[in-house]
Design a protein that fits this description.
By secondary structure, the chain is of the alpha+beta class. The chain folds into two domains: 92 residues, Sandwich (Tumour Suppressor Smad4); 106 residues, Hyaluronidase domain-like, CATH 1.10.3450. A six-stranded antiparallel β-sheet has the order 2-1-11-10-7-8, with no helix packed on it. Helices cover 42% and strands 20% of the residues. It is built from seven helices and 13 strands. The longest helix has 23 residues. The N and C termini lie far apart (49 Å).
């Protein structure tokens, strides 16, 4: 049985079994694993099981969730990975077949795709966009529009980590949109709905145009595509060839 073992913090040695599809961690007593410390958010992160793989997902925590000392919003876990929240450091202990089989094959494929993309210059953008905006932002848009949601999340996370203020909120919204659509493609209705709520909340806090992205248009596309899943309460996304949400930058509004 896959599990998480607390190594450092107020509860060293405690083991939490990952015996259901979503195991929650935080300061609230309603969490599956209560982490009592003022630097831990009420609902800090959760670990999700989907198709034999495990993912750690940050829940907009104030002080962040770290995987192997890198702040993350969402990442697939491997056997032996270290998760940190506040003073708590935890070790991931996955079953052998998950750690060495399907999970690693998936990670390696995504890693190769992302590495190849990172070596290419973003194309199809206005010269002003290329000059003004971070390369990772434009690369993430290319990947997102080609349904490379996992890779888009990785590209945007690089620039999110060094951003501040409204830009940080903006990148987090994009990352969560990519994660939500990735969950949709993998048939994970619960994960898609969770990210949908986070994206909608952030869209309300952002201006109508930011970094040349037309927020009302993107919001309309995103909400329309996931409406049946969210409003209908479906447990499994229906296979759909409807157009996915796309990101188009406005050519005449670049100085946001």
């Amino acid at each position: 049985m896959a599990s998480i073992r607390i190594e450092t913090g107020p509860q060293p040695g405690k083991t939490i079994l990952l015996d259901k599809d979503k195991v929650t961690f935080g300061r609230n007593f309603s969490c599956d694993c209560v982490l009592k410390h003022p630097t831990v958010s009420r609902e800090h992160f959760y670990i999700e099981r989907n198709a034999g793989k495990f993912f750690v997902v940050d829940q907009d925590s104030n002080n962040g969730t770290y995987a192997n000392e890198k702040r993350v919003t969402w990442v697939e876990l491997r056997d032996g990975d270290k998760i940190r929240a506040g003073p708590f450091t935890m070790t991931v202990e996955l079953e052998v077949e998950t750690a060495k089989g399907e999970s690693n094959a998936y990670l390696n494929a995504d890693g190769r795709a992302l590495a190849a993309s990172m070596n290419q210059a973003p194309s199809g953008f206005d010269k002003r966009h290329v000059k003004l905006y971070p390369r990772e932002y434009l690369l993430g848009i290319e990947l997102f529009n080609s349904r490379g949601y996992f890779e888009a999340h990785e590209a945007w996370e690089e620039v999110w980590l060094r951003s501040e203020g409204e830009a940080k909120l903006f990148y987090q919204m994009l990352i969560q949109a990519a994660v939500g659509l990735h969950h949709y493609e993998k048939g994970n209705a619960r994960g898609a709905r969770g990210m949908y709520k986070n994206v909608c909340e952030k869209l309300q806090r952002l201006p109508p145009v930011f970094m040349s992205l037309d927020m009302p248009d993107f919001s309309r596309q995103f909400k329309s595509f996931l409406a049946d899943l969210v409003d209908g309460g479906l447990e499994t996304p229906h296979p759909s060839e409807r157009p996915r949400p796309l990101i188009h930058l406005l050519g005449d509004q670049v100085n946001d």
